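Bench notes, afternoon.
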Amino acid sequence: MMRYLCIIILSLPLFQACTSVAGAHALQPGYLELQLLGQDKWRVFWRKPAVQGKPMEIDARLPGNCDARKPTDPRFDGAAWVSQWIATCAGGIIGGEILIEGLSQTQTDVLVRYELAGGESQTARLTPSEPGFIVPDDPGPLAVLASYFMLGVEHILEGIDHLLFVFALLLLIRDPWRLAGAITAFTVAHSLTLASAALGWLVIPAPPVEAIIALSIMFLAVEIVKREDGRQRLSERWPWIVSFTFGLLHGLGFAGALLEIGLPQYEVPLALLGFNLGVEAGQLLFVAAVLISGWCLSRMTPSVSRWLTRAGGPGIAALSYGIGAVSSYWFIERVAGF
């Protein structure tokens, strides 16, 4: 029984990778924004994910008291299909239902951001299982915390570059206490820069940050391939310093995604806390999945496990060169996009 359980666990990452490659665009979130203009008028911005070069077959339906004006024909902005229009909702939108038609037949979600009287901004997250919601007068702090927590989990699990950095740390650092210290330092560092950038205290252009994130993965790949038994590399002697330094940069990457989503006007600290906790939860889920997979591999095929993890061996070299090749491609691509 345990053998079959391990086979299932080991096959999950491969299945997930194939699914992500096949439907990468389809898993991008949608975004609906209602900006209050006054006198029961809202500017509506609707961003649909792209699927095989075409808009995903989902549509935003506003509350029933809004006019039936149709959105403009969507245009492709390089990542998704966007449209905008002016909607008149007599009496406001509180108590009305916002629904994303067709969302229940997809594997993505939609973030809805809307303004109420007084300029107060609120956020809701819609999923295939809950494609609509009734606009509340006050959603409450728990709703904000839960929405941004799930956004944080999704962002880290879809952020392959961030996960590859953590995976490289797991390959490089064998001592459990040093590994725990490195992960903790990475967490503290990206929490600091995530908050600073999201609050506007630290402003750095995104393209250089993304390129240096790829460079940080390349650095760890070199450290892994040059690692030898009995001799510790710089990142093994001082793992928390290396993790903290690069964690500051990864936090700026997280902040870029959060700024694209936007923060609720009156719940900024709570939204930041929820998003950061979600990032950490997703990171811990990934670490747990890797460790369980490694344990299963060592139980099923000890010789293969030793071949893959022995310092200086062909298995660890293949993994490190693979990580280095992918991160090098990202680095060149991101620098070329400056």
